[in-house]
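Sample intake sheet
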Amino acid sequence: MVISNHIISGKTKFIAHIGFPTHSFTAPKILNPCFKLLKKDLIVVPMGCKKKDLYNLIKGLKKLDNFFGALITMPHKEKIVSFLQKKKKIVKLTNTCNILKIDNKKKLIGDMTDIIGFENSIKALDLDIKNKNILLVGAGGIGTTLSHYFLTEGVKKVRIHDVNNEKSEQLCEAIRNKSPKFNFKIWNYNKNNFDYLINASPAGTNNEYPVHQNIIKNSKVVVDFVLSNKKTKLLELAKKNNSKIISGYEILINQIPSMLKFFGFKSLSKLELDKIKNQYI
């Protein structure tokens, strides 16, 4: 079996890419060539795991001698935290995790690199979020992480929207407990103009709009965390209206150096990462 010219042997270790569904997974296409360049006998393998099966999967993986770590995506970024024995600061703060590794005592160590990918992506466009009004769609793992991040970045106002209103209410309560004066509320549909529209929900995976088209048209910057090899319907409309756009794919690319560092490897140059991006994506 060959993955990006990587010969798999009995010595090969693996990173499980855990989520559901798996059809939009992009990280293996990027990280497998990275490990090849770094001369690591290591591969990323997608694993389609539903919520009800996460416990049994993690329990089984920990018993495997060649299990190296995992990438965690929807819908497990919150639930996975309960399996961690060691947590980085951002994981403790947000109670979310998107990457983990196993130590020599079979302890799971978790971190969250999505924020680094987001931060690097807005910097690449010479943007910032200070004093900005933000509509955040999705109160799950990514939405929760972003909400805590906004507390420290001087954001003026955040409105949260989720199809599950109870999740929005719980997130609002958590943020208010951390910072009672922060202007963070459930979106009441009255305000239609935002500096940033950020989709942190799975809505775009079905090629649909997470909010009404007028909201998209009136947003200066549109960010979609949905991973897709092509522009989502949301980003296509935003681009037509001359909004600046950031895709889930760009956010992933911009956190690869942090992922490599977490796993204990040196980073690759921008030139090397661009070559991988152009060849395999």
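Comment: The two ends are 20 Å apart (CA to CA). The first strand starts at residue 2 and ends at 3.
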